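Step 1: inspect the first sequence and its tokens.
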Amino acid sequence: MHKKPVRMLILTILLLGGIAGGVVAALKHEPGFYQRIAIEAGGDRTRQSDEFMKQFFTLLNRVYDTRRGKWTFNFTQEQINSYFEEDFVRLKDAEAFAKLGIHAPRVQLENDTMRLAFRYGSGFWSTVLTYEVRVWLVPTEANTLAVEILHRKAGGLPIAAQSLLNDLKELARNRSIDVSWYRRDGNPVALIRFPSNRSRPSAQLLRFEVVNGRLTIEGQSFEPTLPPSESSDPEDS
């Protein structure tokens, strides 16, 4: 008379064990694209990381220098991922992200979308988080990017990762980049305004485009203007 409850208990344990095993297997799944876009160590990876760094710092100089005119910079997927493996680690930028549990970031550039992936956590419970995003310039706000999160996965499982997004928001704020969130068609969208500590930006972004493994950033620099307190008084002339 006690065989049926015992049998049901055993079946329940086996069922729950199978579900748990499936969840763990899904979490441990490493997306194929994450493996494919990894850059093999060697001279070519070092060279491409150097190229990314040179272009990136040239871009920063054009944003902040006093030369007028338009400028365009192109970054390839290989250059960006080489940087993540090389100078990102060497210059210790990776340490700030490691404090959030983020390691080995990689990016895949597709038509109009990007897939950002990184290993999250450590040890047995680490997994690869993947964010598929669409990025565009906000036409009504200068120097503001909208980043719409289309899909989020931990391994092979869809997830909600609000706490991680809040951590990244705080990390951006510490670097004078303002981030706010809203929802569009049910998807979270980050509005990234930079640099947030300058009332008179010296440059304006004109294009931020992702096409066929390449990121293109185009902008225009202006002559610097003095704030009213520093401008000359007509009566003094």
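Step 2: inspect the second sequence and its tokens, then contrast the two.
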Amino acid sequence: MEINDITIGILAGGKATRMNNKDKGLVCINGITLVKNIIDKISPYTKNILINANRNIQTYKNYNYPVISDEYKDFQGPLSGILSMLKNISTEYLLTIPCDSPNISWKLIDKFLIDSNNTQDIFVAHNNLRSQPVFMLISTRLISSLDDFLTSGQRKIDIWYKENNYKYIYFDEEDKYFDNINTIEQLNKYNNVK
């Protein structure tokens, strides 16, 4: 798969209840917002970037990439943001990255490109301990499947991808790409790292 076959979607539409409902994409680590940290790491390689956000829309638009809000309102989970982005891309595939992942590297995206093919509809990251399904490469062929799943009231990302033609992309256990910031305590820890 080539980089021009995919759009990278940054998931920043969550409620962040464990972080006092802060807009996670806009909290800072070492003076840089989480969403800008990701953009800075991927924009040298591609301009096919979308941001999924449900609050502070204009602030996200200031990063000069399209901002897509969830069709399903009231913070229905990452699948809602994924569906909305899938419906708004011109490439065949969407690669999702959660905004709260401070250790993102282009190497993660490159491994998806190298290890994927067009025989599966979903490729899910796996760190050899467990799947990391918010890091996922999804074909637009699955828009109807995902829409039907959400319409039925289901929200569990693991259930949905396992109902479809998926493959795991395996990463090393020690890879830090999947570390995420869920709480104020974790955020403070990252801000104290020199």
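Step 3: confirm your contrast with the notes below.
Residues 3-192 form a domain with the Spore Coat Polysaccharide Biosynthesis Protein SpsA; Chain A fold (CATH 3.90.550.10). The longest strand covers residues 131-139.
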